[in-house]
Amino acid sequence: MTERELVISKIREGTVIDHINAGKALLVLKILGIDEKTRETVSLAMNVPSRKMGKKDIVKVEGLFISEEKLNKIALIAPNATINLVREYRIEKKFKVKPPEVVRGILKCPNRMCISNAREPVESIFYISLKGNEVVAKCHYCGRKISDLAKFII
Ligand code: CTP
Ligand code: ZN
Q1: At residue 20, what are phi and psi to the nearest 5 degrees?
Q2: Nearest to 21 by CA among 101, 133, 154
Q3: In the Cβ-directed half-sphere of 72, how many Cα atoms lie within 13 Å?
Q4: For 52-102, what is each residue's pLDDT tens digit?
């Protein structure tokens, strides 16, 4: 660490979401439900230089341990993210998010004629695949393919 480098403070207890695709940190906060009412200490860095990714975003939240459902949503918009669970300043667990192969009730199909958007809607089902760095999804019912999934998260 040189004196030219800037660091965000370490956290005592909570979650560090690292290697978020550059520019997606604000969406991660949205998925976590973090807004102006939040009382926890939250740090966010965008476009930090990264050897692996060129640029990356980082989010650190004190006192937060993320549910499986939210991890799946994060994986859809930040498929390279690393989750670090911190206790007493030490990383207790580190793992990469993994986009699920199938997601139910998480994405809304943009096709208005799709049965998943009918007057008595059925739960949406999408098949997930990776296209390079991007996550794409295909609707089980109508076959519509979507990318830039943040727009479609329910
Ligand atoms: N971190 C933190 N608070 C702690 C411990 C770690 O905020 N008490 C942060 C670090 O600043 C870093 C991330 O958690 O952003 C991962 O820490 P570490 O595993 O030590 O860093 P790297 O080895 O660079 O991680 P990786 O191999 O996943 O790139
Ligand atoms: Zn559809």
Answers
A1: -75, 135
A2: 133
A3: 15
A4: 889 999 999 999 999 999 999 999 999 999 999 999 999 999 999 999 999
- In terms of domains, do 111 and 148 share one? yes
Cα 118 to ligand 2 centroid, rounded to whole Å: 10
| Distances, alpha carbon 71 to alpha carbons 2, 29, 43, 142, in Å | 34, 12, 18, 26
- Can you read off the two tokens belonging to residue 103? 């997601």
Q: Give the count of beta carbons closer than 10 Å to the beta carbon of residue 2.
A: 4
- Please report which ligand is nearest the Cα atom of 115: 2
What's the token pair of residue 56?
């990356």
Considering the domain boundaries, does residue 66 fall inside one?
Answer: yes
Q: How far is the CA of 108 from the centre of ligand 2 (A)?
A: 8
State residue 2's pLDDT score: 57
Instruction: Establish whether residue 61 lines the binding site of ligand 1, counting it when its CB lies within 6 angstroms of any ligand atom.
Output: no
Predicted TM-score (pTM) above 0.85 = yes
Q: Does position 143 have pLDDT exceeding 80, yes or no? A: yes
Is the minimum distance from the CB of 76 to ligand 1 under 6 angstroms? Answer: no
Nearest ligand 1 atom to the CA of 11 is 3
Both structure tokens of 49: 């230089």
Give the CATH number, domain containing residue 47: 3.30.70.140
